[in-house]
Design brief:
CATH architecture of the largest domain: Up-down Bundle
Membrane topology: Multi-pass membrane protein
Strand content: under 5%
Subcellular location: Membrane
Structural class: mainly alpha
GO molecular function: transmembrane transporter activity
CATH topology of the largest domain: Growth Hormone, Chain: A
Number of domains: 2
Distance between the termini: 31 Å
CATH class of the largest domain: Mainly Alpha
Keywords: Membrane, Transmembrane, Transmembrane helix, Transport
Number of strands: 0
Helix content: over 70%
Family: Belongs to the major facilitator superfamily.
CATH superfamily of the largest domain: MFS general substrate transporter like domains
Shape: globular
Length: 427
C-alpha cells in the first residue's frame, strides 16, 4: 500500500502544477480557470463522505479499484483535452472518485492495531509525500518536450493503471485477519475486540463474503445505507473532533496562503527562495512521518496528549512567523512547523478513528476529508480579507483559530482521556 500511495501522489503532482498553464493555453480566462478549479473542490467536498461510506459497504478492494480506474480515466481524458470543455469534463471523474488515499488509509486502519496505527499512518504519509516532492520536478522536465502536458497526463493515467494492478495483486486472504484477531484478542480490552470485529468484517467484505451481497445489491439500497451511516456520524458526539480538524486546517492554510508574497513584501525575498523553503519543509515532513513511531512510544501511545502538544507547537510557530523580524526566524519556524503539522495530521486521524468507536473507518475518514475541503474553500476568503490589513494578517488570524482549537481540546479533555484509557489499558 505504501508503493501505490507514493505512485499516486507522484503521478498527480506531475500534472497538477501544469494545469493552469494548460487551460490558459486553450484560451480560457482566469475566471473560467478559477470556476473549473472551484467545481473540482466542491465535487471533492461532497463526494469524499459518500465514497468513504460506500467503501465500508462494498469492501475496500472493490471501492479502491473503482476509484483508481475512474481516476485513471479522468487523467486519460485530460491528456486528450484540446478544448476547455473537454478539460472541464476530464475533471469530473477525478473530482468524484479521487479518494484513493483515503480508502487506503481506511484499509490500513482495518489491518493494524490501534496502538500501531499512528506509526503506520505516519509511514504511509511519508511515502506519499516523497511522491509529491519528486513529481513536480519530473513534470516540469516533461512539459519542456513537445506536447509535454499531454504526455505527462498519459503517464499519470498509466501510473493509476499500474496501481490498480498492484491493488488487485494484494493478498486479500483471511490468514492475516485470523492472526491479527488473535493478537488483538490477547489485549483483553473492549476496544481491541471491537477493532478485531471490524477487521474481520472488512476483510470478509474484500474476499466476497459480504461484498457479494453488498456490491451487487440495488444501487438505491446502497445509497440508502450510505445516507443512514452519514446520519449516524452527523448525530454522534464527534463534532468537536471535526471542528478541531477544521480550525487547525484553516490555520495552516492561512500560514501558506500568501507565503511567497509576504516574504517578498516583508524581507525582499524572491519567490524562488520561497519555493526552496517549501520544498525543504516538505522533505522535513517526510522525516517527521518516519519518526512517528519513536515519538508515539515516548508519549506512551497517548494520541490526545500528542495532538494537544503538536497543536500548541504549531500555534506558537505560526505566531513566531507572524512576528518574525528576520528571514532566519522564518526558516526556524518552517523547520519545526513541518514536524508539528505532520504529527498533528496523523494524530487527528487516529483520534477520529479512536473516538468513533464502532463507526466505520471509511465513513469517518471521508467526513474528515470533507471537513478539510471546507477549510480549503474558507481559507482563501479569510486570507484575502486579512491581507487587506497587513501581510502578517493571515498567519495572525491562523494563530487565533489554532488557539480556539486548543481550547476546545482542553474543554473536552475528559472524553478523550476516558477513551484513551481504554485504548491504552494493559492486558
Amino acid at each position: 500500500l505504501f508503493l501505490p500511495s507514493f505512485q499516486d501522489l507522484f503521478g498527480v503532482s506531475m500534472v497538477v502544477p501544469l494545469m493552469n498553464l494548460h487551460i490558459k493555453s486553450l484560451g480560457a480566462s482566469h475566471t473560467v480557470a478559477g470556476i473549473i478549479g472551484s467545481l473540482y473542490g466542491i465535487m471533492q467536498l461532497f463526494s469524499s463522505t459518500f465514497v468513504g461510506c460506500w467503501s465500508d459497504i462494498v469492501g475496500r478492494r472493490y471501492s479502491l479499484l473503482a476509484c483508481i480506474l475512474l481516476s485513471a480515466l479522468g487523467y486519460f481524458l485530460l491528456g486528450t483535452s484540446t478544448t476547455v470543455f473537454l478539460f472541464a469534463i476530464s475533471r469530473v471523474p477525478v473530482g468524484i472518485f479521487k479518494h484513493t488515499l483515503s480508502i487506503s488509509k481506511a484499509l490500513l486502519s482495518d489491518l493494524v492495531s490501534e496502538r500501531d496505527r499512528p506509526l503506520v499512518m505516519g509511514r504511509f504519509n511519508a511515502a506519499s509525500s516523497v511522491g509529491f516532492i519528486l513529481g513536480p520536478v519530473v513534470g516540469g522536465y516533461l512539459t519542456e518536450l513537445e506536447d509535454g502536458f499531454y504526455q505527462t497526463s498519459f503517464i499519470c493515467a498509466s501510473i493509476f493503471l499500474l496501481n490498480a494492478g498492484l491493488v488487485w495483486m494484494l493478498p486479500w486472504s483471511e490468514e492475516n485477519t485470523g492472526n491479527r484477531e488473535k493478537q488483538q484478542g490477547n489485549k483483553g480490552t473492549d476496544s481491541f475486540s471491537a477493532k478485531a470485529n471490524r477487521d474481520l468484517h472488512s476483510k470478509s467484505a474484500a474476499n466476497g463474503a459480504v461484498a457479494s451481497d453488498s456490491l451487487f445489491q440495488s444501487p438505491w439500497v446502497q445509497v440508502a445505507t450510505v445516507l443512514k451511516r452519514i446520519k449516524g456520524i452527523a448525530c454522534s458526539d464527534l463534532w468537536d473532533i471535526f471542528l478541531v480538524r477544521l480550525l487547525m486546517s484553516v490555520a495552516i492554510l492561512l500560514y501558506y496562503s500568501n507565503f511567497s508574497l509576504a516574504l517578498d513584501e516583508r524581507f525582499g525575498v524572491k519567490p524562488l527562495f520561497a519555493g526552496y523553503l517549501m520544498s525543504y519543509s516538505s522533505a522535513l515532513g517526510v522525516l517527521a512521518g518516519c519518526l512517528l513511531g519513536p515519538i508515539t512510544r515516548l508519549y506512551q501511545h497517548n494520541t490526545y496528549r500528542l495532538l494537544l502538544h503538536s497543536s500548541t507547537l504549531t500555534c506558537t510557530l505560526i505566531l513566531l512567523y507572524a512576528s518574525a523580524l528576520s528571514i532566519w526566524m522564518v526558516i526556524l519556524s518552517s523547520t519545526f512547523l513541518a514536524f508539528s503539522t505532520t504529527i498533528g495530521r496523523t494524530c487527528i486521524i487516529d483520534l477520529e478513528l479512536t473516538i468513533g468507536g464502532n463507526e466505520a473507518s471509511g465513513t469517518l475518514l471521508g467526513v474528515g476529508q470533507s471537513v478539510t475541503s471546507v477549510g480549503r474553500i474558507v481559507a482563501p476568503l479569510l486570507s484575502g480579507i486579512a491581507q487587506e490589513f497587513s501581510p502578517c494578517g493571515p498567519p495572525s488570524l491562523g494563530v487565533g483559530l489554532a488557539l480556539v482549537a486548543i481550547l476546545i481540546m482542553n474543554a473536552n479533555k475528559q472524553k478523550y482521556c476516558s477513551r484513551g484509557n481504554v485504548k491504552l489499558k494493559n492486558p
